[in-house]
Amino acid sequence: MCALALGLAGEASWADVPPARGLEEVSHRQVELRGGFWGPRLKTSHEVTVPHALDCLEKDGHVTNFDKAAGLAEGQPSGHAAFDSDLHKALEGAMYSMQHYDGAQLRKRTEGILDRILAARQTDGFLISYFIIRDSDKRWQDMRLMHQLYNAGHFFEMAVEHNRLTGQTRVLDAARRFADHIDGIFGPGKRYDVGGHEEIELALVKLYRATGEKRYLELARFFLDERGYAHGTERKPFDPNTAVQKPIPEGLSDQDKRRESRRARNRVRNGRMQDHKPLIEQDAIGHAVRAGYIYSAMADIARFMDAPQYARAVEHIWQDMVGRKMYITGGLGTAQYHDEGFGDPYLLPNRTYCESCAAIAHVLWEHRMNLLPGQAKYADVMELTLYNGMLSGISIAGNEFFYQNPLTSKGGRRSRWIGLSCCPTNLTRIIPQVGGLAYARGKQRVQVNLYAAGEATIKLDDGPAVKLAQQTDYPWAGRVKLTVTPDKPAEFTLCLRIPGWALGRPVPSDLYRFADAKAPPVGLKVNGKVAKAAPKDDGYVHLQRRWQAGDVVELDLPMPIRRVYAHEKVLADKGKVSLMRGPVIYCLEGIDQAGVDVFKLALPPDAALRSEYRADLLGGVTVIQGKALADGQRPVTLTAVPYYAWANREKTPMTIWVNEPPAMPPTDK
Ligand code: FUB
Ligand code: ZN
């Protein structure tokens, strides 16, 4: 166990800025996930994903871009204007990872890269390699397209994590200088504008929390408040009828024509950038990565400022998303409008977009939603997205990635790397953070959101430091043993999330439902004595007592195999069923169906299904098997594997939604 991670000293690196509302998070630094499902994944991330990401980024010129910007190398910038952000994300992932695993060599490597980044700093604090090398006079032009604030946001997030890992301030200071520079340009009475790709907003909240500097929080709020208004020197409501439409010039090359038409589309601000009207009037709309980040920031601002309008607005958006626009995997974004974004309500085609970054942004958003009012329904969706739509983005070996995560495919193969590597680098930083999603704390309250083998240390305000050890095979089995060890006997409430799936609901809306909503009873014991497992309205069982070292809580969440149906308005899933067990969504892969076409397989509603843990398969998974019909009549055995694990063997077709023939009428005998 890494002493650094469980020491409480690390928490002191947050400035003293408690949230105005809601709960506090328990940082990943206080949680060690060892063994079980996540332990090996964190280890793979540290040993394989992080070094692989840094290798690819170095090879693709992300680091030399900074050398060029520092005047230490010649040439034009490599890649897209957002290239810096990818490097910052991978470095951030390395920082998280080094909190949990020994990283002497990695530390040397990352510090070396940081030296090269910092060497490119401009005297005014500006630090984006692309604009230092070229277009220096256009630094703050074309804000819809050029990702300036997005790059800055990822730099700030990485700098905060570097500070938390090392205690050093050199990177954090550079982030502050850059944030001060931005704050000098944008804001009330200065320039009214916003970036086309949100991210800086949530990063500024982090920077505020790390430094205590209120201006950063106010700037984050400014960028929220300004969305949906005409920008320039004054603030006026956006009127789509007066949007400037410049004709595309004649005689351009195809590539330039494409770029210009993209620019024209972005000038006519549609919902793609959540900038067509004020955020507090919006539904879930537009590019799903940008959306997840700005919704996260809305929840943050509602938590750290007096801004109940953002709490109301983000809840409205959440209802729209979870009730009409989310895939059963927690994935978001259909590409209906060619914008990597949300489609119309209930329009959820299975050959779809569902970008890995969108799933990650979704996880981060649900985490913040959970902290706001402390309700389990958000952790339900966070868990669903983590185990399914997010995890499918990365191979089990940790070095291949999906950008898109469709629910059906003729055969998929993850890529070793992707040029604009938003998804691989985002996956590099989300896996080592998972421990930080598992708990939350409030006044005299410890909240368990995720069941995962490992140990956490949670310091309650004016209360004890509580060690919580979880022993569990979750998500393959629903038994969880929690050993509670406060450093002194103390009264507090241990809140255990009873997942929606254990109560007969796959999601907290009517977008998906189980064929049979009856749920077997949840078991609960405290020190061997049966306790009531009924959750309160917030979705948690509240165990309030005087806790002493060595108290043991045993939770038993039965995990029957569930058949899931989509809302009848989701035409793509009509006549189809999917399988879920615990929080895991299953799929059929051709390789497991002995020559039977997965798209022609049919699973009768009354077919018996059984589950079996297979240690030898796909890194250890529970598979589901049952009798199905091939070509409408031939009985065959169907084998379903967890969706996240698809495309880790040879390339074969895959589907989550399986045809379901009508039930056979009972025969007279
Ligand atoms: O533009 C930066 C990132 O690249 C976006 O978040 C992704 O959708 C991809 O387009
Ligand atoms: Zn991405």
At the third CATH level, what is the topology name of the largest domain?
A: Glycosyltransferase
User: Helical proportion?
Assistant: 25-40%
- The end-to-end distance, rounded to whole angstroms, is 64 Å
- Percent in strands: 15-25%
Unreliable segments of 5+ consecutive residues: 1-12, 238-244
Mean pLDDT across residues = 93
How many domain regions? 3
So what's the CATH class of the largest domain?
A: Mainly Alpha
Broad structural category: alpha+beta
Bound molecules: beta-L-arabinofuranose, zinc ion
Characterize the biggest β-sheet: 10 strands, antiparallel
Radius of gyration, rounded? 25 Å
Oligomeric assembly: single chain
Q: What is the name of the CATH architecture of the largest domain? A: Alpha/alpha barrel
**DSSP E strands, number:** 24
- Which of globular, elongated, flat, extended, rod-shaped describes the shape? globular
Number of helices: 16
